[in-house]
Design brief:
This protein is of the alpha/beta class and 225 residues long. It is built from 8 helices and 12 strands. The chain has helices spanning 10-22, 33-42, 59-68, 84-92, 105-119, 152-162, 171-178, 187-202; strands at residues 2-6, 26-30, 47-50, 75-79, 97-100, 126-129, 132-135, 140-143, 146-148, 169-170, 210-213, 217-220.
Amino acid sequence: MRVLVIDDDIRLAALLQQGLRAEGYAVDAVHDGLDGISRAAEGTYDVIILDVMMPRMNGYKVCAHLRTTGDRTPILMLTAKDGDFDQAEGLETGADDYLIKPFSFVVLSARLRALIRRTRPNHQVVQHLGDLEIDTAAKRCRRGGTDVSLTGREFEVLAALAGRPDTAVRKRAILDAVWDGADLRSLNLVEVYISALRRKIDKPFGRRSIETVPGGSYRLRSDGA
């Protein structure tokens, strides 16, 4: 599970990263609203932890922007603003839950798990993109009913793209999803694995489902063409 923390309290963000990583989450953190919007657009996150009072753009506006642009990632607002109207404003702008500072990390962790379960009740284990079938539970891929043998890393790269079909996914986001913590010098790894995927799931079947997008991104077509 991948978590994005958007909070201008650098110390708190670091503590959240440490605690959530210890529970098995992959966690990124940014410290103002505009950077949060940019990172959310670049990454494939399962949940966003969003502070309200931040420089450049507050959490309400960040949440509203994400929802307006079609981002349906679950959002947990984490803030010291504890008034009823504050909580109502957060929920009405599109947040899925609201937790008041100071908070218990045990409660935060439980709320995150519940939020992910609640907002993904019908999460598909098997995804169909045209004649491309991706089974995330079995880590198996089929094209037109034919099994396609992929390595573990190849499957993870494919899953990172399949998580946002028809959407340009930046190399950095793929790198973070598959090689958590790798630095930018490893971006060529993404290119290598994309090439390998094209040789396996596209070329033998006369398909071009993985598209290169100008600016260092890739897109997986939902029609599998």
